[in-house]
Amino acid sequence: MTIQGFYLMPHPPIIIPEVGKGKEAKILSTSENLYKIGREIEKIAPETIIIVTPHGTMFQDAISLVNEDNIQGSLKNFGVPQVSMNLQVNKVLTERIHELAIEENIPTVMISNTFLKSYKSTLSLDHGVIVPLYFVNKYYNNYKIVHITYAPLNDMSLYKFGIILKRAVEELKEKTVFIASGDLSHRLKEDGPYEYSPFGEKFDTEFLNNLKAGDVCSLFKMDEETVCSAGECGRKSAFIMLGALDCKRFNGELLSYEGTFGVGYGVMKLNILGEEESKLKELEEIKNLRYSKKLNHQDAFVRLARESLTHFLTTGEQLKELPDYVTEEMRQNKRGVFVSLKKYRELRGCIGTISPTTNSIAEEIIRNAIEAATQDPRFSTVEESELLDLDFSVDVLTESVTASKEELDPKRYGVIVTRKGRRGLLLPDLEGVNTVEEQLSIALKKAGISSTEPYTIEKFEVIRHKE
Question: What is the pTM of this model?
Answer without folding.
Answer: 0.84
